[in-house]
């Protein structure tokens, strides 16, 4: 069976090596300015958060959207209430660093750089691009790396979303002081999705952390189910970019939080 994650990580080694040759780490460090933990600020102010993802392609499903550019998606998400945006910079998702820079210029929302971090260089690079947060995938990092990269991220004024897929990943995430834990509903080998993965892992989570369900959220009912189970927010890509009305779908996912406020 094709292991998509392994393929991405192997290619990422080449991408990082080339990036270091073009712009050495010392030069990256000299250019960047620390962030101000904008993700944490935004999430602490809201009982429910939508991280809307600017994604045009999936390595498993191919092209997902041919009618919008990444920056057009970003403007729609911001105008319709998203708390934060996720921008892919990995080529398997048709992402690139230039997309991130364009979105940074277009919107005021906090931005998560969505990539496969395997080297500390990528953390400094993310901040140079204007990222407010990075994704750290527990599955592709050792426990020591996970903790080290979290502290490095914080030293740059950025937040980190630690992504987990099973109980072992969750244990690794909880062994760090991470504030944000994302439960990915995507099988990392086959890339199929089901929100049942979040529901199965929530009993093993620390509810004092901010828990985000990632991927596989397609309907208002999916979002409600995750909210009622104890999630603090959702990260949605395909469920938005393939929607008939992206703006309306964004408002629907955001509205789950307003419903929560109304019944509190």
From TrEMBL:
Pathway: Amino-acid biosynthesis; L-tryptophan biosynthesis; L-tryptophan from chorismate: step 4/5. Keywords: Amino-acid biosynthesis, Aromatic amino acid biosynthesis, Decarboxylase, Lyase, Tryptophan biosynthesis. Its EC number is 4.1.1.48. One of its GO terms (biological process) is L-tryptophan biosynthetic process. GO terms for molecular function: indole-3-glycerol-phosphate synthase activity; phosphoribosylanthranilate isomerase activity. It catalyses: 1-(2-carboxyphenylamino)-1-deoxy-D-ribulose 5-phosphate + H(+) = (1S,2R)-1-C-(indol-3-yl)glycerol 3-phosphate + CO2 + H2O. Pfam families: IGPS. Residues 5-252 form the Indole-3-glycerol phosphate synthase domain. CDD domains: IGPS. Gene3D superfamilies: Aldolase class I (3.20.20.70). The keyword Lyase applies. It comes from the Bacteria. Belongs to the TrpC family. NCBIfam families: PRK00278.2-4. This is indole-3-glycerol-phosphate synthase.
């Amino acid at each position: 069976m094709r292991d998509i994650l392994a393929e991405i990580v192997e290619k990422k080694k080449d991408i990082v090596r080339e990036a270091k040759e073009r712009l050495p780490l010392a030069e990256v460090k000299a250019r960047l300015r620390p962030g101000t933990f904008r993700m944490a600020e935004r999430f602490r102010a809201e009982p429910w958060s939508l991280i809307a993802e600017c994604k045009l392609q999936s390595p498993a499903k191919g092209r997902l959207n041919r009618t919008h550019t990444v920056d057009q998606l970003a403007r729609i998400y911001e105008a319709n209430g998203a708390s934060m945006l996720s921008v892919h910079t990995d080529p398997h998702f048709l992402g690139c660093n230039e997309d991130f820079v364009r979105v940074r210029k277009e919107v005021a929302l906090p931005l998560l750089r969505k990539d496969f971090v395997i080297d500390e260089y990528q953390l400094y690079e993310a901040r140079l691009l204007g990222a407010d947060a990075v994704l750290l995938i527990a599955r592709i990092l050792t426990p020591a790396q996970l903790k080290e990269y979290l502290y490095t991220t914080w030293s740059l004024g950025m937040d980190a979303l630690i992504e987990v897929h099973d109980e072992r990943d969750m244990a690794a995430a909880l062994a760090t002081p991470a504030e944000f834990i994302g439960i990915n509903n995507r099988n990392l080998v086959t890339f199929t999705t089901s929100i049942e993965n979040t529901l199965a892992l929530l009993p093993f989570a620390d509810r004092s952390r901010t828990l985000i369900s990632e991927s596989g959220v397609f309907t208002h009912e999916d979002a409600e189910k995750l909210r009622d189970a104890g999630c603090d927010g959702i990260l949605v890509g395909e469920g938005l970019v393939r929607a008939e009305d992206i703006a309306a779908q964004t408002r629907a996912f955001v509205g789950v939080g307003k419903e929560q406020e109304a019944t509190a």
